[in-house]
UniProtKB/TrEMBL annotation:
Residue ranges constituting the ABC transmembrane type-1 domain according to the UniProt record: 63-265
Protein topology in the membrane: Multi-pass membrane protein
Protein name: Carbohydrate ABC transporter permease
Biological classification of the source: Bacteria, Bacillati, Actinomycetota, Actinomycetes, Propionibacteriales
Family to which this protein belongs: Belongs to the binding-protein-dependent transport system permease family.
Stored CDD domains: TM_PBP2
Keyword Chaperone in annotation: no
Bilayer-spanning residue ranges: 7-25, 67-89, 101-121, 141-164, 244-265
Keyword hit for Transmembrane: yes
One Pfam family linked to the record: BPD_transp_1
Subcellular location per the Swiss-Prot or TrEMBL entry: Cell membrane
PANTHER family attached to this UniProt entry: DIACETYLCHITOBIOSE UPTAKE SYSTEM PERMEASE PROTEIN NGCG (PTHR32243:SF24), MALTOSE TRANSPORT SYSTEM PERMEASE-RELATED (PTHR32243)
Length: 279
């Protein structure tokens, strides 16, 4: 008898593949083709839809914003989370146990519950920076800091498990060779735990790339917003201009890079999450 849970998962996978292909095909159609034959192939691919989507609603600048913000946020998150996770995983003190509990609670905390404090903090930091420090402030910097803060609990939680799966004999051997704790971490533990670290990096990047709520609340300037917010602006423009092909093209620009990245590293992510104990 087939497993019903497996069947539901396969149905969900097929549905998502179908939707991704359907969006891609409609991005190459005219509006008449989209409404006349929504599930058919395009008679003549309309590549101009991508030009329209890219030129409207600041898609070019938003793509650059997304790339820079996500890259900085993901890398800095792992740079902070990895040492913290290593210390927690190797410490047997009560404080480490409390830290594990605190991290687990933070992972379960929805970002919506701290949205108002984040907005107030952003306003105060912006005012302080403009008045006392630089004379200006870029809200993309705020977004990077907030992405780091909201991603750290998950990253520490994930990497703690990765480092905890490594045998303590590695630490003992390094100590016998005269390696300092910092050398042990940087030269031994990080390379051995690299699959798990890479998995955490990719998962954070995927999550940050698709994040929309914080961008809309914390960045009022459209020129500083990322791709998801630009897509919402594009939707508001296209639905009144009756250019649905351009809207589908905008969706492709947003989701296909992430989809390709996940298809490329998806298996490596799963291997990274489970390979620490076998290194």
């Amino acid at each position: 008898m087939p497993n019903p849970i497996k069947m539901l998962l396969w149905i969900w996978v097929v549905f998502n593949i179908f939707m991704a292909v359907w969006v891609g095909l409609n991005a190459l159609k005219t509006d008449r083709e989209i409404f006349g034959a929504p599930f058919g192939l395009p008679a003549s691919p309309q590549w101009d839809n991508f030009v329209t989507a890219w030129s409207l609603s600041g898609f070019g600048g938003a793509a650059l914003n997304s790339a820079v913000v996500v890259a900085l946020s993901a890398v800095l998150t792992i740079a902070i989370a990895a040492p913290a996770a290593y210390v927690i995983s190797r410490s047997h003190r009560r404080l480490a146990a409390l830290a594990k509990t605190y991290v687990a609670l933070c992972v379960a905390l929805p970002v919506q519950t701290i949205l108002v404090p984040l907005f107030i903090a952003r306003s105060e930091v912006r005012a302080f920076a403009i008045e006392y420090l630089f004379g200006w402030w870029d809200d993309r910097i705020t977004l990077v800091f907030i992405y780091i803060a909201t991603s750290l609990p998950f990253s520490v939680f994930l990497l703690t498990a990765a480092f905890a799966s490594l045998p303590t004999s590695l630490n003992e051997a390094a100590e016998m060779d005269g390696a300092s704790p910092l050398d042990t971490f940087a030269r031994i533990m990080v390379p051995v735990a690299w699959p798990g670290i890479k998995s955490a990096l990719v998962l954070n990047a995927l999550n940050m790339w698709n994040e929309t709520l914080l961008v809309l609340v914390l960045i009022p300037d459209p020129s500083q917003q990322t791709l998801p917010a630009a897509l919402l602006r594009l939707y508001g423009t296209m639905q009144y201009n009756s250019n649905w092909g351009g809207l589908f093209a905008g969706i492709v620009i947003l989701i296909y890079p992430v989809l390709v990245l996940y298809l490329w590293v998806g298996r490596r992510i799963m291997e990274g999450l489970t390979s620490g104990a076998t290194k």
